[in-house]
Every structure is written in structure tokens, then in C-alpha cells.
Amino acid sequence: MKLFLSFSVLFFFATLTKAQPSLNISYISDSTQIKNLADEVMIRSTAYKNLRTLCKEIGPRLSGSSNALRAVYAGKKMLEAAGADTVYLQPCIVPHWVRGAKEEGYILINGTKEKIKLTSLGNSEGTNGKLINADVVEIKKMEDISRVNVKGKVVLINIEMNPTYIKTFRAYGESGVGRRAGPSLAAEYGAVAVMVRSLASNEDDHPHTGATVYNDSFPKIPAVAISTQMANKISSVLQSGKTVKAMIKSNCKMIGTANSFNVIGEIRGAKFPAQIITVGGHLDSWDLAEGAHDDGTGVVQSIEIIRSIKAQGIKPLRTIRAVLFMNEENGGGGSKAYLQNAKQKKEQHIFALESDAGGFTPRGFNLDMSLEKEQKVKEWAPLFYQYGVYDFKEKGSGSDVGPLKEIGTSLAGLQTDSQRYFDLHHAETDVFEAVSKRELDLGAMNMAALIWLVSEYGL
Amino acid sequence: MKLFLSFSVLFFFATLTKAQPSLNISYISDSTQIKNLADEVMIRSTAYKNLRTLCKEIGPRLSGSSNALRAVYAGKKMLEAAGADTVYLQPCIVPHWVRGAKEEGYILINGTKEKIKLTSLGNSEGTNGKLINADVVEIKKMEDISRVNVKGKVVLINIEMNPTYIKTFRAYGESGVGRRAGPSLAAEYGAVAVMVRSLASNEDDHPHTGATVYNDSFPKIPAVAISTQMANKISSVLQSGKTVKAMIKSNCKMIGTANSFNVIGEIRGAKFPAQIITVGGHLDSWDLAEGAHDDGTGVVQSIEIIRSIKAQGIKPLRTIRAVLFMNEENGGGGSKAYLQNAKQKKEQHIFALESDAGGFTPRGFNLDMSLEKEQKVKEWAPLFYQYGVYDFKEKGSGSDVGPLKEIGTSLAGLQTDSQRYFDLHHAETDVFEAVSKRELDLGAMNMAALIWLVSEYGL
Fold first, then answer.
1. Tens digits of per-residue pLDDT, B155-189?
2. A361 CB near a chain B CB, below 8 Å?
């Protein structure tokens, strides 16, 4: 462990030393340009104002909904106002899932009926307005599903997010298996419905939705999320040896597909226009709240990159493209269309950066590219330290730019301080008021700096 | 700039290399012990529960108030519950300032009277229930006070916090001169009252209080804070050439001194009990809200250090003392008493750590100690990286441990991600709900690790 750390430091040092000839010449001018961009964003950013529009004037933006379409046109207007050279809509096909009339849920303990909050999982099938009524059986690990008798039961998949993981996305990824694969696994063993403990790192009474993925080999049983508090309560009653009955009524269903759009705004490269740099977030959101942190913030930050670079009179050497992706939450229709288009037109995508980890203070950039390119990005790291970004060690990018890997694009994702993210992610608490203007702008500012560096030096 | 950075890296590397012989032996066991402490805090911390008690059961804790005394006894109980070997109260004298009946404020523009929100500055004298009524004159820099005619006027000291400073405390320190020294300076030039733009980094309608310091050579004129929104509004009216009249009525006054206490909980050192390590936050708060981030969080984090070390069965070699200081906000009575006691008893204070920068995600430790000791602390830095703490470069500590410098104590302060701090600092928005449990616990966890390292190895 110690040795590994020392080698990292040594390597970092060696890299810097080796890089000095080129860095020495350009460091001061790069640093000055980034400071100008930083001041531009920290003083005159329109990201917060745009976010208010997305959250308060439009609101929830579920793929296929009329609100999602309103967001498309609002995004187009924002990119035009930001000064993009070209703004256009790129058609895509999205699944059209609807929640229908609000879910109803009850639990019955010792003959006492209690109303509970629940929310259908995205892409799931509901009870078709009928009341399912069955005993609850709890599992705490996925493998337990084959060990307990779930036939005819409602399965409570009660997997906590591990509080000891300092990076919350790690806990989300690990515990998320219950929401994603749990319903079909429970159906395989004969369950009639699934209640998933919300993927939340705090204890409160808000259920968090999110997509589930059915396996076509098994019945598509209803699947809802309940709050962490309710999951704890039911669990403790069951552990005391009592029985708990659950009653669930819901109306959600997949009703086909819909036409929608990615929204794209470009600044054409002054010297290498064919080399494309993408920066994006996703315009769609879940329907429970305003999709503020997920991912209104990524959208308005991407627009702010265009605005700040234009406002500073920078003429980037390579093409910078802000992409407001559609349908990240429950299908990826937008990112598929973006890749397909790039392939058809044989576009040269050298770099793509995604912001979809909440509009919190940035901490670093996750990287997914060749070691050689990774080293080039890491040589720029000292330019970011004064802006609070220091971590370039994590692997990763985001689900909207991810598909571009197929055509060899170097990928990155904004790494945020996501300690608060899973308190509100996919829940009704993900609202404009939960976003800090300074945190949002700091993210945009650091993204602008990285995008500008790639536009200037390539990768 | 580049060269400087390279030297820093080189120096950091050299330090690590030099430190390797000792670190190699102990790194794995230190890392394991810290991981155990981290898990203890992230799973079983009582900091959030204690904070709820301080904020919701007690509430505002202005020095000299009955609530401050209730907080003293609550803090004592919490330290006992945390398992401290000894818990005791240390008497101190605090100024007793009271706000009295709520302030009233109006502005008059073009004959239209508008009610405005205002809050008296701490330690200031009010209007004695009378309505002051005078024209407003604005200054944007302190030096302008001698250039404009402020005689008989209400001076609006409208100094924005600089949004381009990435570290918000820098902007707070720089702009804070208006609140601290403005009222007496305005009085020197004949003003009848001062309205200070709130020291806030966001734009909203909440005034932020905070202490002012009168210069005894001049009249103690009334001094209030107005919101950033209201300051912008008045400023734009004045700049359009119109006059603005302000009416201010307030009842605050200094009514003498009061007896109060620091609350102290100790774990006696197993090998060097005479060597004392202090970790603290302040128990008092302003009266407008619950003093959640300022500084309920520092208090409950300090208590959590005791609890987690005890819960892990650690027997620290040196004495660890959690101190809940009284009267940080408007006098420093608690920290003076603490120093005086240490001097009288000739105590050996080797290290003191303060948490008074909000209960936000930690980023580092600010240090104020000899270069040699600073290097020793920096050698521990790699132990903290996985917990998100990486910045050991800033100078500083905190105002409660600061006085210990006189007796040669090495000082430190928790550095947080304070982007949101000055949205709520000293305002009615500083409530329990604004604190994230995970962010709070991460701060406590990193503090526990540093305190444990010093208790094990000294400085």
C-alpha cells in the first residue's frame, strides 16, 4: 500500500518533470486563460438561471412526455442565447413509459393497516389498477432469493447502501443490483411483486425511483421502491417474528416508443473543425421531482461551456459541441442516436466529457482513455488545483458519452463531491433549491477549463 | 508559478521518501487503525443525533442566554454518553448582549414606504426603540467613507463578497472589514447609523448578523445588516440618482457580562497523560437560527472523536480533550478562560484542532505550527487521501484554539468544502436541515484520524 502510493507520487513527479519543457512555455499563458474563463463563469454564469427555468418553468422531464419536449425547445433556446454557432435537434427514439394514476400502498401489521409511500420503478409494469395483497418476505442479499420461499409473496429487497464507502457511487453501484435485476429474479422464483429499499444513503420517508430491467424469460411483476425508513420498519417487524402483509396498487406501463431529440450546440473549430469535442448532460429526468441534480445541472453546465468560451472571445482550434442528451434514465435512446450519427457521418470524436454526478463541488475528472492520453490529461492537473480539482485517478465517464468508446473516443466524467447526491437522487427532493449556485458554477468552470485545454492541444 | 509548483511536488516527494523508513513500518497498521475508526464513525456516529438535540431541542445559543446554559448541560451529558473518562465545566465570563424586541426597518423611495428585513449586528447598540430616519448614502469601499458626506446619514456599506475567490473564507475575511470596523468609522465621520450588506455569497432576502467592534473614541451608532438582495436594490435606486431614506428601530444593547462555561471531556493518556491534545468547536451561536453549521457541527464532531476512540477500545498514549468552547461569536470568553487555565496549571498543550468552518465535506487541515512539525503532519497525508482529505497546504486554525499559540501549541483547523457556508452563516437559514449526515460524519472521521495519529506519535 505504502509502496504503491510512493510509486504514484514518483510517477506523478516524473511525469511533471518530463512535461516541463512544453509546460514551462505554456503554463503561464494557459493558467491565465483558465483564470479568465474561471472569472467569466464565477461572475457571469447563466447556469443557475437556466437551471431555474428547467426546474421551475418546465419541471419533471420524463422521456416521451410533453415536458421532455418542452425541455428540448428550452434547451435549444438556451444554447442559442449562449452564442453557439449552430444549434440543432438530433432525432432519437425513446421508450415511452408512463406512471399513470398515483400508486397506493398499505402494510398490515397485527391487523392494523398503515398507508405507505411507494413509487413504481421506471420501465416496470404496474398492477393494472388492481390491489395486490400478499405476505412480505425480506431478503438482504440477492442470493437469498433462492433460499427463502418467495412464491406468491411480495419480496422486500432490503439492501442498504454501504455507509463505509467514502465514494457514494461505489455503494450505489453495488446495492443497485436489487433494483435493476431484483424484480425478474423474484419473478423467476414465483414472487407476485417486489418492493425495493430505495437506493438512498440517508434515512427518511421519500421513496426513490429508477429504472429496472426485466428479463423477458419471466413474468413482468410489479416493482416499487419504498423509503429507507419504511424498509427498516418492515424489516424490524419481520425480524420480531410477526407477519407483514403488503397491498400495492399501481398503473404504470410501457406504452411503446416516442420520437424525441438530443439538442446540440456547436462552436466550430478554427483550425481543426473535423475534430469534435463533446460535453454533455442529460435533459430527461424522472417524473417525481424537477431533475435538478439529475441532471439539470449537467445540462446547464454544458451550455455554460459554450457561453463562457464565446463570452471570452476564445476561438477554439477544435470543434466544441454541447449535447443535451435525451433518455439517459430509462433507455439511452439519445446516446444511441448520437453514436449512430457519428458513425454514419464518419465524424472524428476525439474527446467527450459528461457531467451526470450532480451539480456539487467538483473534485476531479474520471478518465476512460488510453494510458498515453491519460498521462497527457494528468499533466494538466496542476492547472486545476487552485480551483479545487485534484483527483484524476478514478476510471470512468458517464452513460451518455460511454457508447462513443466504440469509435475510439477518449472519455471523461466530472467527479463531484457526491456525499449528498443519494439523499435526493431519483426522489421528490431533487429540486432546484437543493442546488448551490457556487457549487454548480465551480463544476462548469472546471469543465470549461478542461474542454478548452483539449480544444487547444488535442489529445 | 510552474517552477514553484514543481518544487512543491519535489519537496512533497522528498518528504515522503525521507519519511519512508518509519512510514513503511507503521503505514499498514496506521492505515488499518484509521479504517477501523472510519467505519466506527460512518456506521455508528452519534454526531447527527446530537446535532438534532442541539438544534431542535435547544435552538439558538447566544452567549449569556438561558439557552446557552442549557447547551452547556446538554453538551456535558453528550460527552458523558460518549464515554469520556472525565467531564467537567470550566467557568468563563462572557459579554451579555441582547437583541431585545425585533428590529423594524423601512425604506422610502419616491414617497413609497417599504418594509425591509434587517438584523442588528452582534455587540452593537440599538436605537433604544426610537425610529432613526435619515437619507442613505452608499459606499462600496471602506476608503470612500472619507470621500462622501456621511454626516447625519445612514451609511450603506455595500461590499460584495468576491465571487472569483474559490475559497470562500478569503472573500469573507476581505469583505468582513465593513461589518467589523464600518460602524465606528462611519461614526467618526458623523453618520447616524450603518446598514451593512450581509456577508453572504448568494443573493437572497435573509440578513446575516455577526459581531461588530466599536472603537471607544467614537459614538456607538446603531448598526444593522440587510440582505444582499436589498443592498442591491437600494444601490441601484441610488445609482439612478434618486434618494432613499431609511427608517430603523432596534432595541439591542450590551447589558454587562454573564457567567458561563466551557464543557470539557477527556480521555486520559495511557503513557503521557501530561501531554494534552485539544479538539473543539463552539457551543454558542447567534440568535437568529439554530447554529447548525456554526458551530453545532464542530461541537458534535469533537464529541464524536471521544466516542469513536472509546468505542474502538483505543487507549491513546496522550490525553485527548474535547472542548466545547463558549462565546466564540462575540467575545472569546471561553477561549480566554481555556488559555488562562492552561497557563495557571502549567499544562503542556502539544496540539489543538478546531472545527469551525461548517459541517461540510472535509478537504484538508489548515496548519499553524513550526515548519518541522508541519512536515511531520504532512507525512501523514497519504493516510487521509482515501477519505477525501488531501489539502495540508493552507495556514490557519480557528479562533478558539488560536490563543494557545501563546504557550507554543501546534494548531490546526478542519478545512471544509465551504461553497455553501456563506449562504447560511449567521442567518436564519443555519438550521439542522442544512446539514448532511454523511458530510458531518466524514469531517468527524478525518478529525478522529488526525487526533489519533497525534495521540500515538506526538508532534
1. 999 999 999 999 999 999 999 999 999 999 999 99
2. yes
Q: Does B9 touch chain A (CB under 8 A)?
A: yes
Q: Which residues of A touch B387 (CB under 8 A)?
A: 166
Q: What span, in angstroms and rounded, lies between the C-alpha atoms of A323 and A404?
A: 13
Cβ pair A163:B43 closer than 8 A: yes
| A385 Cα to chain B: minimum distance (Å) | 10
Establish if B201 touches chain A: CB-CB under 8 angstroms: yes
For domain A12-97+256-457, the CATH class is alpha beta
Write out pLDDT tens, residues B397-442.
999 999 999 999 999 999 999 999 999 999 999 999 999 999 999 9
Indicate the CATH number of A100-251 among 3.30.300.20, 3.50.30.30, 3.90.1200.10, 3.50.50.60: 3.50.30.30
What are the chain A neighbours of B38 within 8 Å (beta carbons)?
A: 164, 166
Q: Do A20 and B10 touch (CB under 8 A)?
A: no
What are the domain boundaries of chain B? 21-97+256-457, 103-251
- Within 8 A of B359 by CB-CB distance, chain A residues are none
Q: How does pLDDT run across A140-181, given as a tens digit for each residue?
A: 999 999 999 999 999 999 999 999 999 999 999 999 999 999
User: Inter-chain contact B361–A28, Cβ cutoff 8 Å?
Assistant: no
Question: In chain A, which residues have their Cβ closer than 8 Å to the Cβ of B49?
Answer: none
pLDDT for the residue B27:
86
Residue A2 has what pLDDT? 36
pLDDT digits (tens, 9 = 90+) for A3-25: 333 334 433 433 443 444 445 55
Residue A391, pLDDT score: 97
Level-2 CATH architecture, domain B103-251: 3-Layer(bba) Sandwich (3.50)
- CATH class of the domain whose range is B21-97+256-457: alpha beta
Residue B21 in contact with partner chain A when CB distance is under 8 A: no
A438 touches chain B (CB under 8 A): yes
Mean pLDDT of A242-271: 98
Q: How much is the mean pLDDT over chain B? A: 94
Q: What pLDDT score was predicted for residue B3?
A: 34
Q: With an 8 Å Cβ cutoff, is B44 touching chain A?
A: no
How far does the CA of residue B32 sit from the closest CA of chain A (Å)? 11
Mean pLDDT computed over A431-447: 98
Q: What mean pLDDT is reported for chain A?
A: 94
Q: Model's pTM, two decimal places?
A: 0.94
B439 in A contact zone (CB under 8 Å)? yes
A27/B2 touch (CB, cutoff 8 Å), yes or no: yes
Closest Cα in chain A to B382: A5
- Percent of chain B past pLDDT 70, that is, above it, reads 95
Judge: A382–B5 Cβ closer than 8 Å, yes or no: yes
Chain B residues in contact with A419 by the CB 8 A cut-off are: 361, 436, 438-439, 442
